[in-house]
Amino acid sequence: VGGLLGPQKRDHWLQVRSDIELETDSWHSLTLKCLNMIAQRENCVNVLVTTTQLVPALAKILLYGLGQVFPVENVYSANKIGKEQCFERIVTRFGRKSTYVVVGDGQDEENAAKNLNFPFWRISSHSDIRSLHTALEMGFL
């Protein structure tokens, strides 16, 4: 991040992230805990599908400190092809025998998940992140 922003802007950005964390009741930290739990499991990976173009999406991943949980090869842009097509590419890459769980907040990913018979976990509030964390912690997912 320092290379992207320079030291002074980096410090300012880290303060902004800290302020956001405070105002959102640690939304980012709890989400990062969930993502780390998945990433640390044997034979499990996090895959990000976004409608943002790829380069800005990768920049956001770096800015929010998510590079360790979303390796670059697991970041897909649905900007031109749509989320369902991205999900199909992911299935082609990882295989039909893998288990997939789609986590998101939008109708497009929910519909794409439904069309591919993937479970969908809606995140629309802080309590949804807490519930996801609990489900992961207890081994339900």
In short:
The protein has 141 residues and is mostly helical.
Please state the second-level CATH architecture: 3-Layer(aba) Sandwich
Q: How large is the radius of gyration?
A: 16 Å
Q: Uncertain runs with pLDDT below 50, 5 residues or more?
A: none
Amino- and carboxy-terminal Cα gap:
32 Å
Question: Roughly how much helix do the residues carry, as a percent range?
Answer: 40-55%
Q: And the CATH topology?
A: Rossmann fold
User: Count of helices?
Assistant: 7
Spatial ordering of strands, largest sheet: 1-2
The count of β-strands is 4
**How much of the polypeptide forms β-strand, as a percent range?**
5-15%
User: What structural category characterises the helix and strand content?
Assistant: mainly alpha
Secondary-structure blueprint:
Blueprint: H1 2-5, H2 7-23, H3 27-39, E1 48-50, H4 54-63, E2 75-77, H5 83-94, E3 102-104, H6 107-115, E4 120-122, H7 126-137
Helix pairs in contact: 3-7, 5-6
Binding site for Mg(2+): 105
GO molecular function: metal ion binding; protein tyrosine phosphatase activity
InterPro entries: EYA, EYA_dom_sf
